[in-house]
Amino acid sequence: MMRSSAGLDIPYVNLKAQYAEEKDEIHAAVERVFSKGDFILGEAVAEFERQLSRRFGFDYVVALNSGTDALMLALLALGVGQGDEVITQSNSFVASAATIVQVGARPVFVDVKPDQCMDPAKIEAAITAKTKAIMPVHLTGRICDMPAIQEIADRHKLFIVEDAAQSIGSTLLDRQAGNWGDAGAFSLHPLKNLNAAGDAGFLTTKHADVAERIRRLRNHGQTDRNTVTEWGINSRLDTLQATLLLMRLERLPNIIARRRANVEAYRRLLNAKHVFSPPCRQEEFNTFHTFVVQVDRRDELREHLHASGVGSAIHYPIPIHLQPAAAKLGSKPGDLPVTEKQAGRIISLPIHQFLTDGDIRRVADTVNGFFK
User: Fold this and answer.
1) 272 beta partners
2) Is 22-245 a CATH 3.40.640.10 domain?
3) How far apart are CA 183 and CA 358, in angstroms?
4) For residues 371 and 2, what is the distance between their CA atoms, to the nearest angstrom?
5) What is the Cβ-side half-sphere exposure of residue 23, based on CA atoms within 13 angstroms?
6) What pTM does this model have?
7) CA 230, CA 223: separation in Å to the nearest integer?
């Protein structure tokens, strides 16, 4: 049995170290918010939206209470609904497909490439008269082949909603994640590179009307305190979270740089004969929310790592199309052979910014030693 994360010498994530580093700033942020009593859609929320737009070149940014809501509201604002189909991946977190179902549409899964990104060559065969949108997932911080996906979407007049939950700051051909499609959805979950102290997220879009509608939808469909023009939901980013995120936004470049350096060290140290790490393309900048490698005897390796005091994770062991909730969609084992093979081989190694060079070497030595 694996030991708990509390007993690991090298934990998979280290939120305690982050708190120790930021403790004084966090307390000051809490004091500012509570002293003003400005808790809901306060000035810090608007400033966070402005900063994201300025730093990453987004036309419009709407802060929300989760990346999941960002996906769902993007679909709603683009008119995706009952009877429509949305092409997406099955090797993602369940929210990718769940939000499609929640708006009344049907997720249609296509297979992926060796790097876990959507395979554009599989999209055409999945398009039907009901297809309304494509939802590529920029898994692990790597942007999908968006030029190829964009060409298909344009030719078939389909919307693109980028699931960019794991890819803030990632670029392809110098273009930011979230800046390719009609909308992009980002998560600010505590485990993300830019992380809140709870659920949080934001949506990006190049369409002014989409941004305007999502601002209404996130606040119960209100145009002012007393006027509701359509039925909405409560998906407002708390002012306290926005204040914390503004502080952490300043640290994000260094966090990304450290994670990228950790990956380079792993790639130098890990035995490529036994450990496959999808290489980065020359035209991409991967921010590495996770460092996912593919190995044989994955479950045995994970037990070995934990027994050696090293944490790990699996993102994700059961593809969405094989989850019990997806049974009514009619998917079955064998439908997505690459996705299903990878699901049994993927393992996420620690990559957080608090790892030392010695930690990286120890993790690599532990992995290499297992295969000897």
Assistant:
1) none
2) yes
3) 41
4) 19
5) 4
6) 0.96
7) 9
Closest by CA position to 205, among listed 193, 197, 217: 217
Instruction: Say which DSSP state 281 is in.
Output: P
Can you point out the beta strands (E) in the chain? 60-64, 85-88, 106-109, 131-135, 159-163, 171-172, 175-176, 183-187, 201-205, 222-224, 227-228, 284-285, 291-294, 346-349
The pairing of strands 85-88 and 131-135 is: parallel
**What are 154's two structure tokens?**
């344009």
Tell me the β-bridge partners of 88: 109, 135
Task: Supply 320's token pair.
Answer: 């969405």
- CATH class held by domain 5-16+252-371: alpha beta
- What's the alpha-carbon Rg for the chain, to the nearest Å? 21
User: 266 preceded by cis ω (within 30°)?
Assistant: no
Domain ranges of the chain: 5-16+252-371, 22-245
* Lookup: tokens for 352: 């957080």
Residue 314 is encoded by which pair of tokens? 């699996």
Written as tens digits, the pLDDT of the chain (372 aa) is: 454 555 789 999 999 999 999 999 999 999 999 999 999 999 999 999 999 999 999 999 999 999 999 999 999 999 999 999 999 999 999 999 999 999 999 999 999 999 999 999 999 999 999 999 999 999 999 999 999 999 999 999 999 999 999 999 999 999 999 999 999 999 999 999 999 999 999 999 999 999 999 999 999 999 999 999 999 999 999 999 999 999 999 999 999 999 999 999 999 999 999 999 999 999 999 999 999 999 999 999 999 999 999 999 999 999 999 999 999 999 999 999 999 999 999 999 999 999 999 999 999 999 999 998
d(C-alpha 167, C-alpha 173), whole Å: 15
Structure tokens at 307: 């027994």
Contact predicate 118/136, CB 8 Å: yes
Half-sphere exposure of 215 (CA within 13 A, CB side): 16
Unique residue bearing structure tokens 């037990």: 303
DSSP letters for 63-86: EES-HHHHHHHHHHHTT--TT-EE
